[in-house]
Design brief:
The structure is a homodimer. By secondary structure, chain A is of the alpha+beta class. Chain A has four domains: 86 residues, Uridine Diphospho-n-acetylenolpyruvylglucosamine Reductase, domain 2, CATH 3.30.43; 117 residues, Uridine Diphospho-n-acetylenolpyruvylglucosamine Reductase, domain 3; 107 residues, Alpha-Beta Plaits (2-Layer Sandwich); 104 residues, Alpha-Beta Plaits. Chain A has 17 helices and 18 strands. In chain A, the strands form four sheets. In chain A, strands 15-12-14-13-17-18-16 form a seven-stranded antiparallel sheet, sandwiched between helices. Chain A has a five-stranded antiparallel sheet with strand order 5-6-10-8-9. Chain A has a four-stranded mixed sheet with strand order 1-2-4-3.
């Protein structure tokens, strides 16, 4: 997979000396380290940076960025390396900024239900910090991503249907701009009309407009009661419909995750479980005891009307955690279907009323091309994922997967949806932005040129 | 109040002929029409445009904008004229684009719970269009503003605590950019990671980056049950605390509006009501019958713990509508406290834990300066309004109000909040953006310069 590891820039030794003056030995040009920072979790070929730096403060990052600006060196922020569309590949070499050592809790205001963390803190580390506060951070993309990476990609995930994406849960950011200036966007107020929404502009900009170094987050109270249920359906349509009807009847479901039969089979094999190998929805309900009971009763009735043969409760915490572990392992379970393979995870999002047709057409397309590709859907949002289990060295297979992917993205855009609901653009989906945005893409490019006139921030990505 | 009405630009007759070719007689240079489009609902002096145009389509607006770009004519979009910080004042003359004739429903997708409207449609007109669908649009700033104006100012209001601001409820926009290109931002999907969030950038940009001509909105199911209650408190602190505790205990209250004693007195006089003249909170609860009962019971207990002497229910629709009518008339009720006066409405938003101290300090400050100024708070968001009832010709009074306002804005920023939670910047709050944003303001200016290099879009506002 690896491209030959050589410098794609011709950065002078003086530049590296400048970095050394800022960071001492917290930088590396070792081949293994560079390779490790040259890819995320997808099939996109490795593209290693010239150097990886390990800063500990916003100030150090600002100094690194100023040095890069002076020498025209490309900058690629690197969080936990869980991105899926080649976001962290150093396509033009340069400096990969490994954010892992910026992992501190800066502030926690339990009474205001907000906190501020350094961008390298991972989602699970934040969970640990919040233990005992009665609060939680709901955005859950599955992977143990860094909070900064989740902000940079506008991540969402399983609980978005209830709690929103990063867009609804980030109050503000600290960002090092491409010229090295440090700005704070947003404050701790729940809303503001004071000027342009730079926070929103940075969310989902994937490191192309600046380096996010701190993230202020909105927290939520842990619900008094939580219940979960698993329900399998005869058809994919019925499974999707159960979620659509749940949303349309106003049940504030906390999670509604659909796994198709291929995915259920993979999950069973991987975790030694025995769920029916049918399209299945995992539901979760949050609220008071009475509210949870009322919500789950409403959904059980919807499922029963759709002819679902069973509705299994998981009220005990250990049953729920087994269930969500199975869901979270879906990616790795799928890879295990074909040892030695790589995963090509792609996603689209459509208006929820078009979700069934979009998923069903995509499933037919996958099967017609003879590919192995489970489907998982955050169905409550109209968002779903296809995971092609592929051998990247098999050109024919790659071409078939690319065809299915291309048709799915075009279908989603035609249906009024988007070519990526939550994975982002990286360089894998750049060519679909024109179809989706038309002239609006020119406006995005104007913004990029205004904030990063040298084009040093994560070059080759997004716009 | 009116400034002498004369042209501040020197636009040639050829420009007006070009407008006439686009619009026929749907344009006016009559003094009364120009004056009418030279101000919003606040005390800021009138600044009339040179001409007011009344387009009916996005295409006509694009043609007008191209003509303006060719002649360097300033452009000021004008919705319902309910803005409060001088947003619509034509400070440099030019063309006011009256959006009122773009008032159509473009699409309604009840099954997906979304719709698309032309920007000039007002909030109440939308309410009419949605009758019988079982759906409603929750953002309620009080005034019968246009949806486009609400998008342009990032409006919010009484239900934000439960349903969010325009930011959470706008799916996408059609925007005429300053060079006349028409772009669509966002689609109908509930979320997207496909490129920069131009929708978010336009929301709250107050016409300085383009003219919003269509707005795609997220709709919500009308709750099965609605209940409301009014509760008065001995002190302002106790009233604020009742809301803070409600939020912190996770009760998903739909509205929590605090009116101070001065405001309650005004409301009583204006509408012939007899509420106690004490700090009062109006609560509203949405959900199923059981959920509403559970929520309101929880809040009644919180209020009782805070020593509230009464908790009046309004379960009948007519009682609720009387209650919310009283709340919505607060602005006009306040003006009636002093006939012939003008209102200077200002707002800030702080982290909710700091709301009590911020409101109490502001109340003391108002009283110390001997001003009449009721306070109303969307307390669940940490947002509150002061309405100075003033005589703009009384320089001393204006100065005292400006002092109170300045201290309040600085206090809010110091407490981690914002100088405006929902009114926006216009030109009234421009000078506070530096204190709030620091260097981030330069990034905003770079974005402005990139998208509007001629500086013709609503000049003199925001950045």
């Amino acid at each position: 997979m690896a491209t030959p590891i050589e410098s794609r820039t011709s950065l002078p030794e003086a530049f590296f000396e400048e970095l050394r003056a800022i960071l001492g030995d917290r930088m590396s040009t070792a081949e293994a380290i560079r390779q490790q920072h040259g890819e995320g979790e997808s099939f996109h070929p490795n593209a290693a940076p010239d150097v990886v730096v390990f800063p500990r403060t916003t100030g150090e990052i600002a100094a690194v960025v100023r040095a890069c600006a002076a020498y025209g060196a490309p900058i690629v922020p690197f969080g936990a390396g869980t991105s899926l569309e080649g976001h962290v590949q150093a396509l033009e070499g340069g400096v990969s900024i490994a954010m892992g050592e910026l992992d501190g809790l800066v502030e926690l205001h339990a009474e205001d239900m907000d906190c501020r963390v350094q961008a390298g803190m991972t989602r699970k580390a934040l969970e640990e910090h919040l233990k005992g506060t009665g609060l939680f951070f709901p955005v859950d993309p599955g992977a143990d991503a860094s909070i900064g990476g989740m902000a940079a990609t506008g991540a969402s995930g399983t609980t978005t249907v209830r709690y929103g994406t990063m867009r609804e849960n980030v109050l503000g950011l600290t960002v090092v701009l491409p010229d090295g200036r440090v700005v704070r966007t947003g404050g701790r107020a729940r809303k503001s009309s004071a000027g342009y929404d730079l926070t929103g502009l940075m969310l989902g900009s994937e490191g192309t407009l600046g380096v996010i170094t701190e993230v202020a987050l909105r927290l939520h109270g842990i619900p008094e009661a939580v219940a979960a249920a698993v329900c399998s359906f005869e058809t994919l349509e019925a499974a999707v419909d159960s979620v659509i009807l749940t949303i349309q009847s106003g049940v504030p479901v906390a999670r509604a995750e659909l796994l198709d039969d291929v995915q259920m089979d993979a999950v069973n094999r991987f975790a030694g479980l025995d769920y029916p190998v049918r399209p299945t929805v995992f539901f979760e309900f949050h609220g008071t005891d009475a509210a949870v009971q009322e919500q789950s009763q409403a959904v059980a009735e919807i499922a029963s009307d759709l002819g679902a043969p069973d509705f299994q409760w998981a009220t005990r915490a250990e049953d729920r955690s087994r269930l969500w572990k199975a869901r979270h392992e879906a990616y790795y379970a799928s890879l295990a279907l074909r040892p030695g393979s790589r995963g090509w995870a792609t996603d689209v999002c459509v208006p929820i009323g078009r979700l069934a047709e979009c998923i069903v057409s995509t499933r037919e397309d996958i099967d017609a091309e003879g590919l192995i590709a489970p489907i998982v859907s955050h169905a409550g949002d109209g968002n779903f994922h296809v995971l092609f289990i592929i051998d990247p060295d098999d050109a024919d297979e790659m071409e078939r997967a690319a065809r299915v992917n291309g048709r799915m993205l075009e279908r989603a855009i035609e249906l009024g949806g988007t070519c990526t609901g939550e994975h982002g653009v990286g360089y894998g989906k750049k060519k679909y932005l024109e179809a989706e945005h038309g002239d609006a893409l020119h406006a995005m490019r104007a913004v990029k040129a205004a904030l990063d006139p040298q084009g040093i921030m994560n070059p080759g990505k997004v716009v």
